[in-house]
Sequence to fold (309 residues):
Amino acid sequence: MSPLIFKKEETARIRAVILKIGRMEKVDILGLRVKNIVNESISLNCYKNTFVNKIIDFTLSDLSIHKPTAIVYVVSGLEKRGNLLKSPLFPLLKGVDLAELTAKISKTKTFVLNELDCAARGISVSSPKEDFFTLVNWDDYFSFKNYEKGRIVNFKEGGHIKFDFSFFAPLCECGERGCINAIIQGQNIERRIIEEAKTIGIKIPIHKSPIDFLLSEYEKSDNWAIGFLNSIGIILGDFLGNIEKVFFSPLIIWRGNLAKKFLHIIEYLLKDKINEEVNFKFTPFDNDYDTIIGVNSLFDSKGNLIQEI
Ligand SMILES: [Zn+2]
Fold:
């Protein structure tokens, strides 16, 4: 992990709650220390009020342990600035003023930020040389953000750029068909592996995840697995090649489990399709540490947002 560069007086006591597909994570950031990390699963299969109350209860339970100067929700896929939320990954949050509801109960300043914005900021403040890059998240959710000279260049999430215009293109959480997220996010890749394996008569062992099964078949030089991963590499290469034509960023930084599992196999296909001067690297941080550092860097010791992102 890279050394942190903040001065102590610049840091705040923040309770950050990170909302991702299927889970939420609560973290207390106390200056440069991170404490009290709690994970809980969240289901979208409930009423809107139940969902919102569950998030607020999770956020505020045990709040007295480290009384924060600010509460920060970090939401995957968040697209709208302002009070009312909009993220295709959390349809039950649509139109909810989570910040106001939480602030009213807790009497603590509350903010809502986009997860990838915070992660990009975290990478940049911990490696100040890197001030111009495309951060690509490839996990259960695929998206990207371009970061340049201290600010995010694309305000909207890049995962919902339409890439497959056919009638039966895979359905995305945003309601459209054929977004790049829908094509290569983890759950849809798993679904495709299961369907293809069934069609060609390959049995996936019960104890193995479809993605690990694909990788083990690839190791055995199985033609289906090689073809499958090549097709993913070609799609991702074409997509990023197009993005690169718009943003000209010299560096692509990857984050996410799927990136970790697949990239060593398909990187050569990407390099073929992207300007050869572009470099690739992984985020130096595990789990959500880039996000946590980003959140920490955005607040002063009184819990005020230093910079809009
Ligand atoms: Zn979409």
